[in-house]
Amino acid sequence: MSSFLREAPVGQLIRLITRNRVLRYPEEQPNFELPEPWTRLLNDESKGTTSPSAFDGSRSSTTLSSSTDDSDNNQADTRASVSTSPAALTRSRSVNQDTISVAQHRFDIEQQHELEKTKSIPITPRKTKDGAILVDWYFTDDPANPQNWSDMRRAMITLIICLYTFVVYTSSAIYTTSEEGVMHEFGVDDTKASLGLALFVLGYGIGPLLFSPLSELPSIGRNPVYIWTMFLFVIISIPTALVTNYPGLMVLRFLQGLFGSPCLANGAASLSDMYSMLSVPYALTAWVSAAYNGPALGPLLSGFSVPVMGWRWSLLEIIWAAAPVFIAMFLFLPETSTPTLLLQRAQRLRKLTGSDRFMSQSEIDQQNLDKRAVVIDALIKPIEITIKDPAILFVQLYTAIIYGIYYSFFEVFPLVYPVYYGMGYGQVGLVFLCILVACLLGVTVYLSYLYFYMNPRIVAKGYPIQESRLIPALIAAFGPTIGLFIFAWTARPDIHWIAPTIGITIYGATVFVVMQCIFVYVPLSYPQYAASLFAGNDFFRSALAFASILFAKPLFANLGVARGTTLLGGLSTIGIAGIWLLYFFGARLRSLSKFAVSVE
Asked: Where are the bilayer-spanning segments (predicted)?
């Protein structure tokens, strides 16, 4: 329990206040002794002998820097961490991509890890050419390694990240039932009132471009970004609910989205830190489900209260939801980034031994890098890859269109269900439950595909080509178009309300499957740039969603619900052609791309 509290933000605060007198790390305990392979290395050096470069029956969990002996570099290409996180491994450039895929390499490592981690095998530290000792996990079952945490602990952390994501996404659309009150309060038209939703979405599209690079710096890690931005999210939510002028409300809504965005930028990375490659798709499904259902359930949460309590009530609900989540994060959310954890261990070992030779791999990798250049590159790289790589260009455009259509529902539903079927705000919110049903259907289909087909195939035959991840999307890609057409031409007073609702359910379930396939395909095909690509995808999706919220009302006002939705359905056909072309020609496109993993 002490190790659990120690890693959480509250533990770091307690350690700071008590000057490390409580919740100490093992290296800070008076009776701490380095494991035998480490002491043997230090003793050999003190006697003037050279430590062997072999592993002596155990393996190193760090890749070596360019300063390592050439003879060791060849070994490092085929032997990597028994415990390094998938996110760190995908960023590693030491794997020989001309002979083995990164995905297969990671899977082989994890399989060996599963066989060895219960044996508590000491991990022999390695030494670089210039004499630095690479700090690593002490044993294959080192409890400090997030990959070795208990299932219960990982499940609780996953739950916190999912709740965090759900609250942020819900905070976007929960505002929609307040738009009429904003119009009356500040004397603005419906387009200006809808800016409160649009600017929030734009904010959490821009945020990942800023916060994702920060979380990838080992000296910062994921937790400080999570905690400080969520703290600001809660604080800013208070004046947002009390503001008395329209410009102030819009600025605060944008800042809410901006500071809520790290869950979108880093949520998947945090889960990848803890789970193996076979398990992480299941965790990602839970996380995506939280993000997917958040906007849909927002109108339900405020639909019955706002008409009674006033338009500010939805903004107060954001505070009541976000504050408990922040407290849970502060008390229980640990750091999961392997480079950050090993950097902190290296700092403790330097203090313990008085030797500056203990260094983490991330310190060696980044000692000559300008942090400002890293951040600037992270801002430019998503746009560069999108422009130069046809496969990524399609992914960005398609997901942006799907996301934009999704947010247009918040404008078209009030034109259909209250007008044609006489529903109130609360009842319209209940209609949004069809997105929850759609999500459950999509989860069932996608997890069945993983459990019964993909994962058994990987275990038996190894990793197939990346395009095999798109197989469920080949059929699901037809669903968004079908669902939108059903909604468009059944949303009429003489047809029961369940008919258009079924159309939206089909749309939602199939979009979920397509998005899951794409979000797994991208990091497997472009592992070195996965963080940049997801940050770029967040930006492109949110930018189009921002625009769609503003153009949806004029679109439906001029074309009507049927023709307007039909137009959106026509746009969604881009995905049908694109997914099939990507499946058949994706390998060829990757072979021509300087950003993608080489095709085996």
From this structure: 155-175, 195-213, 225-244, 275-293, 313-333, 391-410, 430-452, 473-491, 497-522, 543-561, 567-585
H-state helical runs in 243-312: 246-260, 262-274, 280-303, 306-309
pLDDT over threshold 80, residue 92: no
DSSP 450: I
Please tell me the least confidently modeled range out of 363-377, 381-395, 457-471.
363-377
Query: Following DSSP, what letter does each residue of 319-371 receive, concatenated?
Result: HHHHHHHHHHHHHH-----HHHHHHHHHHHHHHHH--TTEE-HHHHHHTT--H
Is the model's pTM score more than 0.70? yes
Report, as an integer, the average pLDDT of 270-279: 87
- The single residue listed with the structure tokens 């021509």 is 592
Q: Supply the DSSP string of 288-307, one letter for each residue.
A: HHHHHHHHHHHHHHHHTTHH
- Residue 48 pLDDT grade (very low, low, confident, very high; cuts 50, 70, 90): low
Q: Give the span between the Cα atoms of 550 and 59, in whole angstroms.
A: 56
Q: Which residues contact 56 (CB under 8 A, 6 or more apart)?
A: 37, 124
The angle, 0 to 180 degrees and rounded to 10, between the axes of the packed helices 498-525 and 280-303 is 140
DSSP-assigned letters across all residues of 113-156: HHHHGGG-PBPPPEE-TTSPEEP--SBTT-TTSGGGS-HHHHHH
Here the tokens at position 361 are: 């791999």
Q: Which amino acid is at 518?
A: I
The CA distance from 239 to 255, in Å, is 11
Structure tokens at 444: 């069932």
Residues 124 and 101: their CA atoms lie apart, in Å, by 26
User: DSSP character for 470?
Assistant: G
Amino acid type, 51: S
CB 599 within 8 Å of CB 525? no
